[in-house]
Amino acid sequence: MLRCLKDVALPFIQATDADQVLETLDAVVSPVIKAHAVIHDPDRKHLYHPGTSSNLRADITTALARHGPSLMARYVALNTLPFTFAEATRRLKPTGKDRWIFDLCHDHGILDGVYCSDWPWVVIYKSDHVLKGSEVSDEVRTVLEVSAGMAISRVKEITGHAAPATFIKLSPREKTVLQYLSDGVLISDIADRLALSEPTVKTFVRRATKKLNASSQLHAVALAVRSRLI
Q: Is the dihedral of CA 149, 150, 151, 157 positive or negative?
C-alpha cells in the first residue's frame, strides 16, 4: 500500500514550508484516506492544510482560549498508537464542557478522523464521514503513522524544532539491507541478491533497528530514510 519509502520521503524533503508539507502529506495518504491533515506542534499551535476553512481555524482558536487543552489532546498525549475520533469518543464518553472539541468538529462537518502522535507533535487527519472497516485497517494506520512521522520530521526542520542530529553509524551491509527493504524487497529476496542466509539478513535488520532505536522493522526503514542514511 505504501510506495517505496524513498519515493514517499523525497517530496517531504523537498518541501520548503509547512503548507507544502501538509499538501505533500495529503497527496501521499490520498490513496488510503480522503482527509486534510492538521499538525499540532509543541507550542500548541495548529499548522493547517491550506484548504482548511478560516471559520474552523477561528473557532478552534477561540475555543482553546476559552476552554484550554481539549479532552482529546490530553488523551492523545497518553496514546502512542493511531486512533480514530470515533474510538476516542466511545472510550472517553465525554460530557459537559469536555464535549467542546467533539461538538466543534461536528459543527464543521468533521465526523471522524485519525490521530497519529509523536508527542508532543500530533498529526490529525480529518474526515467528513465516519471511518469504517478497511478505511482504518492496521495497514492503513501504518501508512498514516509513517507518513505523519515524515511530515513531522520535515516541519521540525523547517521551523527550527529539530534536535541536533545524533550521529548513527550503520554498517555498509546494514544500509544495503535497509535500502532493499525501503524498495519493498522481501527478506528472502534480499538474501538471494546478497548471497546470504535469511537469518543473516534478519540479523542485519535487528542490528540496524537497535542502532536507530526503532520500534519495528518498518520504523527502522522510515527513520533511515528520514535521516538520509539510505
A: positive
**CA gap 50, 37 in Å, rounded:** 10
Q: In this structure, which amino acid lies at residue 153?
A: S
C-alpha cell belonging to residue 112: 471522524
45 and 149 both lie in a single domain:
yes
Q: Which of 12-21, 31-40, 57-66, 110-119 is predicted with the least confidence, judged by mean pLDDT?
A: 31-40
Residues 91 and 180 in one domain: no
- Number of domains making up the chain: 2
Report which of 115, 118, 121 is spatially closest to residue 89, judged by C-alpha positions: 115
- Determine whether 228 is exposed, middle or buried from the number of CB atoms within 10 Å of its CB (0-12, 13-18, 19+): exposed
Query: What's the whole-number mean pLDDT along residues 123-136?
Result: 90
Q: What domain range includes position 213? A: 172-226
Contacts of 228 (CB under 8 A, 6+ apart): 13
| N-term to C-term CA, the chain | 21
Mean pLDDT of 190-217: 90
Q: Are 48 and 83 within one domain?
A: yes
User: Of 126, 159, 192, at which residue does a domain stop?
Assistant: 159
pTM of the model: 0.73
Alpha carbon distance 202, 29 (integer Å): 29
Residues 45, 72, single domain; the answer is yes
- pLDDT, residue 9, reads 81
